[in-house]
What does this fold into?
Amino acid sequence: MRLGNGEVTGAEPGALQMIKDEIIAFFAANPFLMVSEEWLATLLCRPLLLVREAVLELTAEGRLEKDRQVLVSAVGGGMAHPDVPERPPLKGST
It folds into this structure.
């Protein structure tokens, strides 16, 4: 629902489920990607508060994983991680 000033106050009926479905579809298409809730909201063009609520529910359902750095990924995915060292440059590519 939105207040008169346009501020989001909670999920409209069915909106949260729709966003949850979009998040699952996003990670089905990108199973090894890890993104912040903020970036996920931007990619999906959805309000951050609703994305956070959907991520919370999906995490509780065991369908998403969230790490200590507030990154989300599909369960079993998440190969890209900020602690993974970068690859050395290829030979001859300086």
